[in-house]
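Hi R.,

Here's the chain you asked about this morning:
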Amino acid sequence: MVKNLDVICIGAALVDIVAKIERHPIEDDEVFVPNLQILSGGAAANTAFACALLGLKVAFIGKLGYDDEFGNKIINDFKDTSLDTTLIKYSKKDGTGFAYVAIDKNGERRIYAYSGAANTLSPNEIASKEIVQTKLIFLSNLKNLEPLKKAAKIAKDNMIPIILNPGMLIIEQGFENIKELLGNTDILIISKREFLYLFQLDDDKLINYVIKEKAKKLFKIGIKVIIITMGKEGAIVINSEKSESIKPIKVAKVIDTTGAGDAFSAGFIYGFIRNLSFKFEDLKYNVKIGNFIAGKCIQKLGARNGIPTFHEIDLTLSNY
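And here is the predicted structure, written out as tokens:
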């Protein structure tokens, strides 16, 4: 079957209300907000947007409020790229979700998210005829697992690779509750914090032998590749035979870490789509692209403003 799309991203599309502040409040405290912006966001939507900016053929599946202000903003921002919005679902009952994001002068953030319509996406709204159009499925950060599980099952049955970047909304549900979704995942992109939480590790220092030991549990249920994003330490890529740390790019100043993980995923997808290869050297190169795009993202305010062009990627990575 001819694949019309490079990737379908499935998850939440929200609006981010972003406040720039001097410091985060302590208990029973108040801080002044000198700068407030309203930006389109949501993990899967951010990754979809970035993939489209990078020149990939992308569609998004998620749920918005029907003809409400936030939903219309999300659609209009999507249309600034070549992103396909025809697979988006709508709710007449629930409004489009939003998140309040507070960022201090050091770029540290606090997020309070209301999922709204996004979390009401039903497995009945995930259709095989839509999923089979793509070369790759990307799933991310939706508390409601059922539509993600159905999409992963359809993709697996049709030999379409699946990347999962779960986020805490999925990870906090516990290993046994998300085991089915993990079992249908080919590539797991997970943050250091999520990895620690998933395996209930108290020590925030991931030692190599601990990573390898826990990774075996994930490989055993069907995952082929694990990528642990380590913030300013870069990322670790692991398969059943090898593991390696990939250094991040140098960043002059961190402005906003919102969307860094989503940008990383987009970069990895950009590399992976080129040949759909699971060879370790190819995976390492894709992680380098992810690191590069995440590094560019955090130097701008908002999850989508620092995404480079694919020409800039190729030029930079030749010296990376």
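One quick note: Residues 280-297 form the longest helix (18 residues).

Cheers,
M.
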